[in-house]
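Sample intake — Light-mediated development protein DET1
Collected from: Urochloa decumbens
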Amino acid sequence: MVRFFRSGNLTSRVFDRQFLSPRPGAAVNTIRQFYENLVPSYTIFDIDCPDYSFRKFTDDGKYLVAFSRNHQDLIVYRPIWLTYSCNEECDSHDLPPKAKRFDSFFKQLYSIPLASSNEYICKDFFLYMESHQFGLFATSTAQSNDSTVTEGAVHGVPSIEKITFYLVRLEDGVILDEKAFCNDFINLAHSIGAYLYEDLLCIVSLRYQTIHIVQIRDSGNLVEVRRIGAFCREDDELFLHSHVQTGYGGSFLPGIKQRLLSHIFRKTWNEVPDQTLRVQHLKKKFYFHFQDYVDLIIWKVQFLDRHHLFIKFGSVDGGVSRSTDQNLAFFAVYNMETTDIVSLYQNSSEELYSLFEQFYDHFHANPQNSSLGKFISSHSNDIHALDQLRAMKNKASSSSQFVKKMMASLPYTCQSQSPSPYFDLSLFRYDEKLISAIDRHRHCTEHPIKFISVRSPNVVRFKIKPGSDSGASDSRAKRISSFLFHPFFPLALSIQQTYMQPTVVNIHFRR
């Protein structure tokens, strides 16, 4: 009966749904299985569209965010569905010319200037609230590597004269509030330097090693409620100033660094029960590496819940470089209320990898109100993804290096995965080297990307072909592709960029 219900014919499946009820609690899963038949079946190559940088869809499907090519303006579209009519059978005719325009699929809601003359919108940065009422954007001036060393700044971290975060009402484009950071460095690429959880936003200042906890009020205000760095409690600074009577001056370690060292000391102390051997053990494991621990800086932070932060510590070089797989790093779970580090792991820890494998979804902290976000495939909720991960581990030449490579993705980057059902690994298989739910550019391929049915492994449900229809291109030119899938419509954009050439945008949809 189940095989009959999951027929390859969409009309048959809709008809069968009327008399075959799913198991209790499985209605949404059953509905998502209809996407095996509702797939993009037609492609418009090199569609006539504005020369914008398209960022992403919000996961409610109402907004498509784009930026102007000069990185000064924010443009927001609303997806609409293509409608046209013909006198004869439409399947036998090509689409009319008007249907091959971008504005046949998307309606522009507004365009607003967001950056001034010497500032630029960070095209990789965009976060939205769970209610989808507000969107968070960022602008910055040019990065400087020759900045003067100021008090509290980490040597070796570059500086940006001004970084500004804007809270925009997505419905009409009204800028409600903004928060600026001067002579600082926040990693805005792919939203790495900020994490949004419910109404709380944490922003990581790499230059001054400070975690700013900002609350986004319903009124549209950005209110900083806590800073974690030099001080951990609200009254730490007052307490120190009122009790310091010696000449230590500014030689105190930052509060978060003190918490880290204290945790490492206690952990090392408790490893050896024998009192006489503890001193030697401390010398070897703690004091010998003391300066290395002191030199650690905060790389990246995410929320685990409203009270706990997941913090990644590492060297200065690893904090500002793109590849951090081989760098030594530590992961700490920090309780903001008690200001204690609850647990600490090295990036080669098998214990942390075991947690990563079994409870990966807990690292995501997906929005509670997002029904689509709950279906993002991972190795902790999908047997197919788990099999892929274990196969990669078995093929790895070094278990330690494999663990480090996997841990490089932590802490998780906020809102970086598409909830589209076409990335659901229980429904479709595809080459993750060419395309995946993770929001990243890929090397362009000449061949179509196949989406194969999991239920029928020999059946290709649909194909996504980036690039031009003819397939003619300069093989010497470096080309990259990005893909934007609507969260629930059979609609996707493939965007191909080639150096010194116009951007090619294809629209894939169900005709």
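Post-analysis note: Residues 255-271 form the longest helix (17 residues).
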